[in-house]
Amino acid sequence: MLRLIRRLEDVRPDALLEAGLPLPLARLLWARGVRTQAEAQAFLHPSLDDLHDPLRMHGMAQAVLAVREAMAKNRPMVVYGDYDVDGVCASALLVEALRSHGAHADVYTPSRHREGYGLNVEAVERLAARYALLISVDCGINAFAPAEAAAKRGMTLVITDHHEPADRLPDAAAVVNPLLGAYPFRRLCGAGVAWKLVWALFGREAAEPLLELAALATVADMVPLLGENRIIVAHGLRQLNRTRRAGLRALIEAAGLADKTVTAGHLGFQLAPRINAGGRLAEAGRSVEMLLTQDEALARRVAEDLNAQNAERQRLEAQIVQQAEIWVRENVDFLSERALVVVGRAWNPGVVGLAASRLAERFAWPAVVLTEQDGMCTGSARSIPGVNIFQALSRCADLFERFGGHAQAAGVTLKTENVPAFRRRLSEAVEAVAEPEAFVPAAAYDLEASLDEITVPLIEQLDRLAPTGFGNPAPVFRLTDARVLEARAVGSEGKHLRLRLAQAGTALDGIAFGQGEARSRLPERVDVLFSPSVNEWMGRRSAQCEVERLLPHSPRDAFAADCLARADAFDLALLEAVLDGRPMDAAAPPPDEAAARLREGWQGTLLTVRTLEGARRACAWLERLGLADRVDYCFGRPQDPRRFHTLCAMPQPGAQEGFAHAYALDDARVPAALAAWLPDDNALRALYRALRAGVLSSEAALSRACGLRPAAVRLGLTAFAELSLIDYQPAPFRVLMLPAVKCRLEESAALRAVRARAEKAEEEYA
């Protein structure tokens, strides 16, 4: 089940077209709020001159006064950061700037495992004994008790943060936050705010060499790459690609990017995870040390350690996700539960947030992953579009020791004894705050496209949207009704899929990363969601598709074609069901009732068909009622535990498990389907003669030799085995002829059962 959502309005942005921009780029810019030629120029050519004066930010002037006073009096100061990439980069750039201008500045990075996020009273009290000024970065906006502790001990406190403030502010010499006051751009990350503080203190020229750190943090912290963030990242990337910073060079080399142009994607998916791994598995302070040091050997040692920790993080994450997914599949009723709450014994608390993200992605369901130790559970929640997880958690606040977060992510701590109540109440809360279709997986795209439109010049125009990422995603096109000319698995263990797609006389190569296993089940005609890119090989530049999703052009048509290709399998499945004594021949369901079930939601209704004709009729019925896109299609039994409405052909035992309603659409037609291939006595005698003549290699060979359908051959072999004429097993196929004995075919229980079923009068299909 998948909903496709088009992000772009079908508008014609004439003002942008008059500037000479191609229509796709103009529409993409329009969707990003660009309305005029001047705005387009500013977006496509990010300039530092378009950054806002940092003194316009709430609390910035007071922060500058407090820091300058401490510097003038040579008072020791400490920068207190967070253990993620944003906090690490913010700490490094601010400390470097302060030291380069003569300040006595140190850095303090709390331990994720011992102290948790943000300022804490114990750390503040220890630091107050050594430092006169504490500057928080990427934290502190709601640190009321630590602010009181600092004041009691006579330490000046300057808070710089970008998180949501409460109704009141901590008591501090300055509270700097773009969400306060009327600052023109409100979505800076913590390092962006710290970079603005450096600018306010020492001037823009002093701040510019630190843009590479601000850029890394901006991408990693998932703030939108628009406005000031876009400018910071664009200029920071240029700087980073020629960086002289020993730590960044070592990190780039450890990530295998030394010979590549580093992009925003590399920052988010290769550099940032390595820095984060330090805080997740060990101490983030070493990452700050790496970014500050000029010692090449030290930088390489730390980068190699981070690389190893990241590999270990990946291993732990995969292990937790595997265990959590098994638990979800075995224990969650997706028809009634609207959130996944999984608890593991002593799972690494630095990794559970990543595991929650993977579960939310895998199931498209809000997910909470908790680690339990000594009667307490600590963990993280991740949500899906349309579900504000912070609002949902707020309805369970009485169960928590503490919690906090925002619409898509949060952290919680609660007693283990409260987990059952939390699981139940969170599901109820999510149901209350969720948008109606939030639980139907969705994929977004920007524009429809045909293959002949995807050219190198167009891609070069679209590349002007870079740096892309959160808030400014790379454009995604939808290609409909393309033919798959070639599909082959490539890369390590066939992990990726190399494609050749064709449409209306145009063919284009494509690469689907991480989708190598899809090769065996690709339909001939597909719809493709992809980002266009340029492939460079042997000096030749050509357009290609970077495929996000491969979908059947028409799931109904693909299912119908697959059914037709499995005609013999339908017969064999019917034979197996009859021989197993499974109940069939149910009355035809009221079609209005089944249709109403499909229309009233997206989950819980199973439709089954046992015959090829039944499958054809069911597909036509769904199409006629406009319901073909409201069901999944499968053979045997549904694999998706979310139990979306499904049409299942050749249902196996247990196929109905987990569904609220099940309708057998064609069981009344089973007798006729059996009669269509049921062999008579003469046909069975011919089959036995073929066996005696030495046709013993396979059921297919017997089918060809006797002109019987495979199910008739299998029924005959089963009957002969019951009559002690042969020793037979179907898989792996084996037939051993036994000495001939006098017998009658009607003595076979299998043959009697199938013939009895076939003789039943066929009921009319409603």
Topology, element by element:
Elements: E1 3-6, H1 14-17, H2 23-31, H3 37-44, H4 60-72, E2 77-80, H5 85-100, E3 105-108, H6 121-128, E4 133-137, H7 144-152, E5 156-160, E6 174-176, H8 190-202, H9 204-207, H10 211-220, H11 227-240, H12 246-254, H13 264-281, H14 285-292, H15 296-331, E7 340-345, H16 352-363, E8 367-373, E9 376-382, H17 389-394, E10 400-405, E11 409-415, H18 419-433, E12 442-445, E13 447-448, H19 456-462, E14 477-490, E15 496-503, E16 506-512, E17 525-537, E18 540-552, H20 555-565, H21 567-579, H22 591-599, E19 605-609, H23 612-624, E20 632-635, E21 646-649, E22 661-664, H24 670-675, H25 681-692, H26 699-706, H27 710-722, E23 726-729, E24 734-737, H28 749-758
Parallel strand pairs: 1-12, 2-3, 2-4, 4-5, 5-6, 7-8, 13-14, 16-18, 19-21, 19-22, 20-21
Antiparallel strand pairs: 8-9, 9-11, 10-11, 14-15, 14-17, 15-16, 17-18, 23-24
Helix pairs in contact: 5-8, 5-10, 5-14, 6-7, 8-10, 10-11, 10-13, 12-15, 13-15, 14-15, 15-16, 20-23, 21-27, 26-27
Report the C-alpha radius of gyration, rounded.
33 Å
- Biggest β-sheet strands, sense, barrel: 5 strands, parallel
Strand content: 15-25%
Average pLDDT for all residues:
93
The strand line-up of the biggest sheet is 3-2-4-5-6
Quick one: overall form?
elongated
Helix and strand content put the structural class at alpha/beta
Instruction: List how many beta strands DSSP finds.
Output: 24
Domain DDH: 77-217
Protein name: Single-stranded-DNA-specific exonuclease RecJ
Domain DHHA1: 340-431
GO biological process, one term: DNA repair
